[in-house]
Amino acid sequence: AGWQVQDNAPTVQGVVEQALGRLLKTTLRVTASGRTDAGVHALGQVANFRTTGRVPLRGFVHGLNGLLPRDVAVRAAAEVPAEFDSRRSAVHKTYRYFLYRSPTPSAFGRRTSWRLSRPLDLAAMRAGAGHLVGTHDFSAFRSAGCDAPHAVREIHELAMVERGEYLEVEVRGNAFLRNMVRIIVGTLVEIGEGRRAPESVVGLLAEGDRTRAGATAPPQGLFLAEVCYDTPVLEAYP
């Protein structure tokens, strides 16, 4: 049911905190770089916690992986300065969204991509994406439940790469609003299908009306790929 702890459903944060509790024999809370929704994946999620325990970094990696369910894995552990915060210390994040372009479904990609049976005009999509790069008010590209105090964000890069039947949309920016990447992808798909013009993105940014942007793309195609920091690492494993 996504990252954030819930009382009535299993979540990534929930199982990580349970495993840490068993490893350290105490109760603690972990802070993530961002909350991924149900169905969204993370290749490079970063979470931090404080402990006075003496488990070595190697023990955190292998110990937690021995306690976690198979669909959650710890890839690395690091000791960082006390002021480090996974969310507030982030310099930029990269998300990838996978579109599967085929008239027939994929038995393997159904949980990790959005299948589109109609052809896409990639040139038009890239033209629309170009208007999104830079610092803008992305009010038209955030969900109604977003609680961010403002919608100004900076997109550093928005690229589209073809890999066979897959189209990979990569978005890198300083921070993101709730559902922002999925709404961007939904809007670009409408452009690619000829249902809106690339130049319509300019009006969406100016007006800030969520109801005029594209539909929110399904969650299963979205991956949090990487979170980058300037914070020095004191020690890391591996």
Describe what this molecule looks like in 3D:
A hairpin with a 2-residue loop joins strand 8 and strand 9. The two termini are 29 Å apart. The chain has five helices and eleven strands. By secondary structure, the protein is an alpha+beta fold. The longest helix is centred in the N-terminal third of the chain and has 13 residues, at 12-24. 23% of the residues lie in helices and 25% in strands. Strands 2, 5, 6, 7, 8, 9 and 10 form a seven-stranded mixed sheet that branches. A two-stranded antiparallel sheet has the order 1-3.
Rg, Cα atoms, Å: 19 Å
Instruction: Quickly count the helices.
Output: 5
Strand content: 15-25%
Characterize the largest beta sheet: strand count, sense, and whether it forms a barrel.
7 strands, mixed
Please state the average pLDDT score.
97
Gross morphology: globular
Structural class of the helices, strands and pairings?
A: alpha+beta
Distance between the termini: 29 Å
DSSP strand count: 11
